Amino acid sequence: MEDDRKGLRVDPRYVQATKEAVIGLILFVLNFLWWYGFAYTLGSGSPDKYTYVLGFPAWFFWSCIVGFVVFSIAATWVVARFFKDIPLD
Amino acid sequence: MNWTMMSALVVYLVGVYLLGYYSWAFVARARAGTGAGFMREYFISGRDLGGFVLAMTLVATYVSAGSFIGGPGTAYTQGLGWVFLAMAQMPTGYLTLALLGKRFAILARKINAVTIVDYLKARYESDLVVILASISIVAFLMASMTAQWVGAARVLQAVGMSYELGLAIFAITLLIYVTVGGFRAVALTDALQGMVMLVGTIAIIIGAVSAGGGVENIVRTMYKTNPDLITPFGVKNFISVPWVSSFWVLVGIGLVGLPQIAVRAMAYRDSKAMHRAIIIGTPVAGFLMLGMHLVGAFGAAVVPGIKAGDLVVPTVTTKVLPEWLAGMFLAGPLAAIMSTVDSMLILVASSIVKDIWLNYVNPKMSDRGIANMSTIVTIIVGVVVYVTALKPPPLLVWLNLFAIAGLEATFFWPILLGLYWRRANAPGAIASMLAGVGSYLYFDQVILWKKPLGMHTVVLPLILALVAFVVVSCVTRKPSREIEEKFWA
Question: Where are the alpha helices (DSSP H) in B254-402?
Fold first, then answer.
């Protein structure tokens, strides 16, 4: 394994673990942008002019309901695609 | 007393007792063995949580009286904007597991840590860090436990029990299963409680939507009552943009710093369990948050005119559901509270026994002594909380106001930077804890600057805590070679 500048042999499992942490953080940021973005772009006008999807105001439908579904699926996909089965002991 | 509703609650409580009994066998076996074995079983269930239980205990610990009673109560007056705000909490599960990640689980095994303080002690090798962390856990968690118990008694009042009787039944059940079964009983009952919450939430959302004549109808009524109810801004811009933007710090990313959440990230069996927990926990957390807060918001159209926020969920439940189903649903908030409190109780006990007593009072305690003391401390803490919940003293009421923020300000950076920044050292961690909690108290209590720059009070203290950590770490000595080797090699 790579030796760092101080000659410490870094546990190779940490490389994968750190990668997963970064991916989790990216997912969180995207989650935030989706949630925040749809609410304030579609929801900022006057409620008199709102459009509706399935009875919900469109901003709420896209931000909270679709966002919930999309990121539940995204979390599953991210785990399947990037997370590795490494020994913990 | 309403017996139909009561019987559903009784079925639920019997389930809880059975799981406590099941866990008892593991604890008894560990008790007969060695001390380290006992502590690992009692405080972290031998690190063998599977994916489903891990997901449920993570979500259920976090979903508390706030999400089942208080939050929907506010959504009732603020409308869809408050539901939107609540959804900031959806990432909790995957974020905690991914951020602390396998690294935390690997380290916990390397240094044989069973509490968060164990980990901080090994990472920083500083008595002051250990003492500050332990005090923070005991003080803040005792305060929030008391508040949660008061909430539980209120739920039981909804089926016609007196406050005192409700509190007593709740306290006795909780104490028995936590004391005999330890962390395993906590995690398994959390899984049961998570499912009760899920079923209850599904039932009540269906009940509320059909009682209101469909979503379209309900939203139209909300709009006619007050157009603000269907905007993301709340009534009269109550939920302002900067506040929302910063609220997710408190309830989104900041939760990683809660010891009762973080400790679960070192209790799972293997990588697969962690993966499954993310896959299961994310939709469960999202659904509970969305469903319960929507019930509150829809309540404004379905059952108008409820005065006290705390009564919204019990009232809507009893109005829209048949009695036997209502009983099952009231088990939901009760389960939410129990699953939060049991985790706090076992954590406070672990902090007193392991972090304070074994470290500073009597390091040479025998294995049997540790086992007995763990049991006794759990009972004593539970009884103290019970007594204080009967008539909460002002100090605890005051502490509870910032228990979550206080814990986050104490633990967030020391846990995370300890894991990812090799240069992080003890003076930095101490500076961070003091700066975080100190500035929080100063802003919130002394100068009453509740929304610095329009943001939630917790944001600025967390930033100051980070700055203090980095600056102080950089001007003081770097961690010893031994620590670096133990944690990185």
Answer: 259-262, 271-302, 312-320, 323-350, 367-390, 394-400
A14–B245 CB contact, under 8 Å: no
Helix (H) and strand (E) counts for chain B? Answer: 22, 0
User: What letter would DSSP give residue B91?
Assistant: T
Choice between B230 and B452, residue whose per-residue pLDDT is larger: B230
| DSSP 3-state of B159 | coil
Predicted confidence band of residue A7 (pLDDT cuts 50, 70, 90): low
CB-nearest to B103 from A17, A43, A57 is A17
Q: In 3-state terms, what secondary structure has residue B49?
A: strand
Total residue length of chain B: 489
> CB–CB of A11 and B83 under 8 A?
no
Backbone angles phi, psi at B49, to 5 degrees: -65, 135
Contact A24 B94 (CB under 8 A): yes
Identify the CA nearest to A13 among candidates B122, B488, B263, B279: B488
- Convert the pLDDT of each residue in B123-140 to its tens digit: 999 999 999 999 999 888
Using a CB–CB cutoff of 8 Å, tell me whether B224 touches chain A: no
> Cα–Cα distance between B45 and B186 in angstroms, integer?
9
Residue B332 pLDDT exceeds 60: yes
Chain B positions in Cβ-Cβ contact with residue A55 (cut-off 8 Å): 214-219
Return the residue of B nearest to A68 by Cα: B286
Check: CB of residue B95 under 8 Å from CB of residue B59. Answer: no
Q: Whole-angstrom Cα distance, residue B106 to residue B249?
A: 27
Which residue from B47, B44, B50, B51 is spatially nearest to B282, judged by alpha carbons? B51
Candidate from B88, B272, B282 with C-beta closest to A75: B282
For residues A41 and A50, what is the distance between their CA atoms, to the nearest angstrom? 11
Nearest to B358 by CA among B345, B374, B344, B380: B374
Please give, rounded to a whole number of angstroms, the shortest distance from the CA of A77 to a CA of chain B.
9
CB contact set of B148 (below 8 Å; sequence gap of 6+) = B64, B65, B337, B340, B341, B344
What is the rounded average pLDDT for all residues in chain B? Answer: 87
Residue A3 φ then ψ, to 5°: -95, 135
* B contact residues 281-300, partner A, Cβ 8 Å cutoff: 282-283, 286-287, 290
Closest CA to B338 of B462, B175, B455: B175
Nearest alpha-carbon partner for B444 in B455, B454, B432, B457: B457
Beta carbons of B219 and A55 less than 8 Å apart: yes
So what's the pLDDT on residue B396? 67
Cβ–Cβ of A8/B272 closer than 8 Å? no
B51 touches chain A (CB under 8 A): no
- Measured between CB atoms, which of A21, A47, A88 is closest to B230? A47
pLDDT (0 to 100) of residue B417: 93
Amino acid A1: pLDDT: 42
- Confidence band of B30 (pLDDT split at 50, 70, 90): confident
CA distance A72 to chain B (A): 5
Residues of A with Cβ-Cβ distance to B102 under 8 angstroms: 13, 16-17, 20, 86, 88
ipTM score for this prediction: 0.92
